[in-house]
Amino acid sequence: MPRDGALAPTCPPPNCYDAEPIPEAARAEIERLLASGDLFRYTSENAPVSQLEAEFAAFMGTRYAVAVASCSAALFLSLKALDLPRGARVLVPAFTFAAVPSAIVHADCVPVLVEVGENFRVDLDDFRAKFDDSIAAVLISHMRGHTSDMDAIMELADAKGVPVIEDAAHSLGTVWDGKKIGTIGKIGCFSFQSYKLVNAGEGGVLVTDDPELAARAIIMSGAYEHNWKKHPGLQNSFVHWQNQLPLYNTRMQNLSAAVIRPQLAEVPRRVRDGLANHDYVAAKLNESPWLDVPPALGPETRAPDSLQFNLKGDWTDAEALRLQDEARARGVGVQVFGLSKDNARAFWNWQFLGELPELPKTRAMLMRACDTRLPARLTRPELDFIADAIVEAAAAVKG
Q: How far apart are the first and last CA of the chain?
């Protein structure tokens, strides 16, 4: 029986958590690798990881790609490749996943948290105020695929000669004014973790057009001795950095690359379907007086696989928590970022940073910002189920 106030569903709740099946081509390649035991990326020059790097660079339109163990590893290597001094201050949005400031700390740098507004994007007034001469780098996290104003950010960074790293973990396939997200800054970092557009369970990649950054990242990723010779080009740079840089051993292994490579061809279809799904559900939620899905910025073409919305109007914490319960009773998982215990996306839980700044705009946003999974594979009836459940949940609380 449904709980009080919940409507009995007319069909089973959609499964929003399973990823899409891995293409059959990956299965054949994995069988070949298992039969040979050839799992290390440097056993041969044409290993699956090397092929993935060439294919991903071509897909993104960049000169270089370096495949590693995770997007966190890619962010860390990017900071190390920039050769920032110990204690360098790095601007980063306060709405991101805990692994992002963690990568900054791991690189012996100091995160400087910037306010994020109700539209889930960097507050440019706070960004400008904090972007003083002490800032050595900017790490823009396109959290949940929401693109901040990259024109304004790059104009400020270029004027100061400060490099920009893009955390594009959620933004594979997103385009800003004709440019692919991840290719606007000096370095772009992507994730292949299970809940991303391309799923390998774990894995990451960084892309850049800068040969010195690529060479440094490759060596530090774990191209020990002369394994860098298995990367095409950059030979002079590699010779220069041989034995000059620490080895962090964050390499990707061949099984992960075998899973990722055949999925690259699926990205355009997943982007198309994910955006259509997102906008369809967003339109239905925006019909409620209690819910608001912020629109995309003008130059932004999104590639979402989840949906974020704000609780509109006057909501108490108790009402926001009840919305989660009401949605769950209707078969749909909704999470209020700031009211989920120990949520790794709530900056006040990043106690490893020590004393945390007051960020009232970001705090207020997180206390009423909601998150729900919305995979590209969902059908129209499943989308209706999700949208209706959330709208009904809000009405049950506020109606």
A: 22
Helix (H, G, I), strand (E, B) or coil at 326: helix
Rounded to whole angstroms, how far apart are CA atoms 187 and 208? 5
Ramachandran category for residue 61: left, alpha or beta (phi over 0 → left; psi -120 to 50 → alpha): left
Per-residue pLDDT of the chain (399 residues; tens, 9 = 90+): 344 444 445 578 999 989 899 999 999 999 999 999 999 999 987 899 999 999 999 999 999 999 999 999 999 999 999 999 999 999 999 999 999 999 999 999 999 999 999 999 999 999 999 999 999 999 999 999 999 999 999 999 999 999 999 999 999 999 999 999 999 999 999 999 998 999 999 999 999 999 999 999 999 999 999 999 999 888 888 988 989 999 999 999 999 999 999 999 999 999 999 999 999 999 999 999 999 999 999 999 999 989 999 999 999 999 999 999 999 999 999 999 999 999 999 999 999 999 999 999 999 999 999 999 999 999 999 999 999 999 999 999 998
CATH number for domain 266-398, candidates 3.40.1110.10, 3.30.1330.10, 3.90.1150.10, 1.10.10.10:
3.90.1150.10
Query: What are the residue numbers of the active site?
Result: 196
